[in-house]
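Q: Sequence in, structure out?
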Amino acid sequence: MKKNYPNHFPVLLGTLFLILFATSCKKEPKFNPTVSEPVNYARLGLYEQVSGNNRRIFIAVPKLGDVTTINYGLVFDTGSTGMTIDADGIIPASMISANGFVFTGDSVNVNGITITSQQSTITYGGIDGAIQEYGNLAYAKVTIGDGNGSTVTPRIPIFLYYKIVNLNNGQQLAAHSADVFGVASGVMANSRKIASPLSYFKLADNVTSGFRLAMLNSANFETTATYTPGLLYIGLTPAELNSSGFIMHPLTYNAISGYSPNISSSITYNGKTIPGTILFDTGTPTTTIVEDATAASNSAALPVNSAVSITTGQGFNYQYTTTSNFNLTQVENPSYSKDNRTIFSIDFFLSNEYLLDYTNNRIGLKNN
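A: Exactly. Output:
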């Protein structure tokens, strides 16, 4: 999911839709019991949902600080880092104004959430438009997961926003229109204190900080949010790091935003091979964007039955063929898009596994 950070984070394509989990959500039986910190290892389910061709995965957040009345699904996003959530319904309405949070001093503690006076904005969007969140750095414990299995983070930094605006027309969007659970490496470039919520867990000595995302279940992408158990592994065991078939890719350090999740690769489409860097992004719900500096047009969709393949510098190979519903692919010239990175959409995760090792700053990729 693209944040307007210099040369680091990915593109938001299609409509961003958020869900409020309700009893209508389709669920499986409980997968595992609730665990509490310090957590040695946890395996949680995520929710899958589709709207048109937009596919999203969400992580349940039933509690923030001491507030237990929330029941939100946040976009689980491998293409950005840090958690952002709307303050509506979480802190008293009297503390929220159109111009910011209402309190005096350097910080305030409300409902177990510390809101600091450090203000910032976060912008999501591509060349066709953008939305911007306005908020403050805050700290809180976060419960992730639900009755199917959950865990609690330590007290972590998050971005608590008080309004979100469509930059195309200036209109304010509905509360919780862009709640994001960003799990990429690095830190938010404009608030370097905020990193992935999963990077803060206290783990046993033989468990490495990081997560593994299992292959998504294409059958569970329905119009109603559908629970899929066992998708997210928090904490990486030696077996997962050394003998599970993942091809590891060391990450490059960026002085502004830490270790970049972009991976050097060669990209081939319709017989044409170009060099590039790829971001594998669950936050891009529809269309893969191939950036080609030699493309004749600014932006053009590949027709159905087009062949696309990649080979990373570490030898990971992946190929697909475009259809009318899956693997939609657009070729753009970076002089038009203002972005040199090729962004692989959520469809990549329908046939591949993904691993991020925060301790050793590397991404693992695995075909399935």
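Residues 62 and 71 are 4 Å apart (CA to CA).
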